[in-house]
Amino acid sequence: MEKVGVHKRDIMLDRVENAQGAQEDAQQQFQSALEQLSQLINYDGGDLTTQYELVNDQYQASKASAEEVASRIEAIESVADALFAEWNEEIQQYSSNSLKQKSQQKLRKTERNYQSLIKSMYRAKDGMAPVLSALKDNSLYLKHNLNAQAIGALQGEYKTIKRDVESLVSEMSKAIAQSQQFINLLKAE
User: Fold this and answer.
1) How far apart are the C-alpha atoms of 157 and 165, rounded to whole Å?
2) Fewest CB within a 10 Å sphere: which of 16, 57, 151, 176?
C-alpha cells in the first residue's frame, strides 16, 4: 500500500479527496437524471424513443457514479485500517510516556473523526439505492410503453423521485462537508 516516500496518512488524504470528488460528481449526476426526467414529463410530442434513450443514459450514468462512490469508500476503509493498525503498533514503541499519551489522544481523535466521516459517506451511499431503483423502474416502464400514457403514468412517480433526489443531494452535501472537515484535519497535522 505504501509507496516509497508516501505515508499511509498521505494515501488516506488522497483517497478522501478522491471520494469527495466522486461524491460531488454523483451529486451532479443525480441532479442531471432528475432534470432529464423532468424534461420527459413535460415532453410535448415527437419521438419518444429518443427521450427513452436520454432517460436510460442518465440512469446508467447515475448507476456508474454510485458504483464509483462505493469503490472510493472501500479504498478509504482499506487504508484507514492499515493506518490505524500501524499507528497503534508505533505507539507501543514510545519510551516517553508524555509523547505516547499525546499520540494516543491524537489517534483517538482521528479515529472518531474518521468514523464520523465514514458514517456520513455510507448514509449518502445508501440513499442512492432507492433513487437508482426508481430511475431504473421509470426507464424500464418507458422502454416498454413509448406513448403519451406512459409519460402520464411517470408524472406521479416524478414527485417521489424528486423528493428522494433532493434528500439524497442534501445527504451527499453533508458527506462532502464531512470529507472536507476530515481533509482539513489531516492537513493540519
Assistant:
1) 12
2) 57
